[in-house]
Amino acid sequence: INTVTRYGSKMRVNGYVIEPGADLTNALLQDQDLSGADLRGATLRANLANSDLRGANLTGATLKFAYLVSANLQGANLSGAYLKSAQLRAADLEGAIMEGANLIDACLVNANLRFVRLNDANLEDADLRGADLSGAILTNAILDDARLDGVSHDAATRWPSGFNPPTQEVS
Asked: DSSP code of 70?
């Protein structure tokens, strides 16, 4: 039985205390409602698959190797978050703030990145195949060796200066 108790800016989920700076290494938090959670500076090398993290504050959080497949992170703040090798396949990050985030070698295959602010983010070696970058802001982002096959983007997508965006297949 999953139990979520909220009190002030903290919450307790299945015995885990969800609060700024929490160490949630190896926590099993899949399929949980963590919407609006304050996890600034937390360590989340955890299973968060299918979890609801809409509007969560993950500023400066460490999510290295975190498993966020199909997680809902709409409007979440991940500024300065460390997401190296994180699994974000099919995650919904629409409108998220990811300025200065480290996404080196992260998997964002088929992720919804519409209107995401990725300015100054490091996406080196990230896998973005099939992701939707419509309206995303990637100014000053590092895209060295990022896999961009099949990404969707539009005229509102802002790319790094001098970057040649991938062409899109017209259906």
From this structure: T
Q: pLDDT (tens digit, 9 = 90+) per residue, 62-80?
A: 999 999 999 999 999 999 9
pLDDT value at residue 25: 95
- CA distances to 13, 14, 58, 63, 138 from 2, rounded to whole Å, are 7, 6, 22, 23, 38
Torsional class of 140: left (φ above 0), alpha (ψ -120 to 50), beta (otherwise): left
Structure tokens at 144: 């060295």
Model pTM? 0.93
Q: For residue 7, what are the CA distances in angstroms to 19, 55, 129, 156?
A: 10, 17, 40, 40
Structure token digits, residue 75:
């409007």
- What is the torsion angle, in degrees rounded to the nearest 10, for the CA atoms of residue 20, residue 21, residue 22 and residue 24? 120
HEC string of 117-151? ECCCCECCCCECCCCECCCCECCCCECCCCECCCC
pLDDT at position 147 is: 97
d(CA 65, CA 159): 26
Structure token digits, residue 2: 């999953």
Query: Could you say which residues of the chain have pLDDT below 50?
Result: 1, 170-171
d(Cα 54, Cα 36) in Å, to the nearest integer? 6
